Amino acid sequence: MPRRLEIILGPTAVGKTGYAIQRALEVGSPVISCDSRQLYKELKIGTAAPSRRELAAVKHYFIRNIPITRNYTAGIYEVEALNLVNQLFAKGHETLVMCGGSMLYIDAFCYGLDDFPEVPIQLREHLMECLRDEGVEVLAEQLKELDPVSYEELDLSNGQRVIRALEVSMYTGKPFSSFKTRRFKERDFEIVKIGLERPREQLYERINARVEQMMARGLEAEARSMLPYRDLPALQTVGYKELFDYFDGTCDLDTAVRRIQANTRHYAKRQFTWWRRDPSITWIPAGE
Length: 288
Prior knowledge:
Blueprint: E1 4-9, H1 16-27, E2 31-33, H2 52-57, E3 60-61, H3 74-90, E4 95-99, H4 103-111, H5 121-134, H6 136-146, H7 148-153, H8 159-172, E5 190-197, H9 200-217, H10 219-225, H11 241-248, H12 253-275, E6 281-285
Parallel strand pairs: 1-4, 1-5, 2-3, 2-4, 5-6
Helix pairs in contact: 3-4, 5-6, 5-8, 6-8, 9-12, 11-12
């Protein structure tokens, strides 16, 4: 029998979790999460991880299973998720369900990543200090000099991505973009991508409401507990960065919440822009 993996994707707050659980129950599959933040044990509220009820409805993988201190990457996810998928197919599953909104993780799973060189941890720590002390704009200007191609392609507001491109360029003396071969790896199962969408106004209302719900559930306390780890890549994330600014006294709480809402809306827009270039995605209205 042909082996099939369905990826439920779409912007944040569109309703992926509920749809994926429904689909998993229909085909007798677990849900394989493809979210770069929901896999951290300590990040529950700010990542909108599935609730206890949702986790009880169907088996989930890659949900709150690693500590915040572990340096987890899309490359590691590619290897671990492929191993899991092959094990599940070997057990007799014919259709599997994956769900997530992390563009790079989904691409890594579907197509594989290029083999980038390892960079000394000391260089990364130095660049992380620069990010904290001088801001991402200074690092982006350095990247522009070393690798203009990556400067044009990357989301320059994402400090983690800028650091990754910059550290490889600095360490190797070659542009980060030169290591991208764009050679897709073959998968021995069918991949079907299903994108969920909503009208923009409705999606933005859902985003704003979800942030308010997160605050009511204790996001401020969760973020405060993460202050000792604020420089880790996992915490360069919407919902935590803005509250760290509030803790630093650079803005009040209402401003921080409005920034979380605005930055989440911007992230949803970037997700749409990324996926609209992929003709293999079948888009359906959320709720159907």
